[in-house]
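ARCHIVE CARD
Drawer: 12
Card no.: 0347
Subject: one protein chain, sequence and derived structure
Cross-reference: see card 0346
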Amino acid sequence: MKDLLLVFFGLLILIIGVLIGVAFLTLLERSVLGYIQIRKGPNKLGMMGILQPFSDAIKLFTKEMTYPNYSNYLIYYFSPVISFILSLIVWMVIPYYFNLISFNLGILFILSCMSMGVYGVMVAGWSSNSNYALLGGLRSVAQTISYEVSLAMILLSSVIMVMDFNLMYFMYYQLNMWFMLLMLPLGLCWLSSMLAETNRTPFDFAEGESELVSGFNVEYSSGGFALIFLAEYSSILFMSFFFVVVYMGGYSLTLMFYFKLLFISFLFIWVRGTLPRYRYDKLMYLAWKSYLPISLNFLLFFVGLKIFLW
């Protein structure tokens, strides 16, 4: 019983850590975007704007929640909560050396949770009963499931090299050489698929401002909007973590690991500050006509390599 309690408290601390990380990721993003656009980011509240995320959180969660008269109220109310919970559950597979859950099918669990995340967006868009929200939700769902296919295929190549779904093994297999160097084209495909999977610029069609008025979250205000926002940034942080585990030397409790994690998260922001939005059909062509063939060919190549070496 005490062991279970310890695990529970460990997971609780992990979730609180993730939430604080997400808060400061938003601050980092606003500051970096500020410097890219030659202005200051938030710098008034606290020292160098360090209290800004907390002020934003208090503001968002104390605002009055509005909802459209024709919305499907219960579903509309709970879909941000569900997508937020899903984006936090994925963090449970981090292979800490102590006290927490480490199980052999970590990658399958991650893929399942990411696939479930689509429903949050879809239901949020549909239950608002607003045309723009529905359109944004549909585009987002089409985009996410398109890129999930190539994401899974790219991931399979790494899994074939390791022959295990446990995230811990990725560290042992990358002691001498990162997978990033071994499969550079795949790593870059994975990087841009991550951007598409998390609905980030240049693939942020779920919230294309010019034509969709902010997309599937257009009817959400206060807490609901904050939860959608938190879910998005939590998944960005997790994707960065996952990229470092699979391609940049695996999980280790060193400072270097966290620097790599920070760098990949920074890359998300950097891309947002520099690249314009794609055209929607180009995005779909990229998934089905570029990434899918590339990842399938590489998969066959690595299977052949593994059999040959074996």
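Annotation on reverse: The CA atoms of residues 79 and 120 lie 5 Å apart. The chain has twelve helices and no strands.
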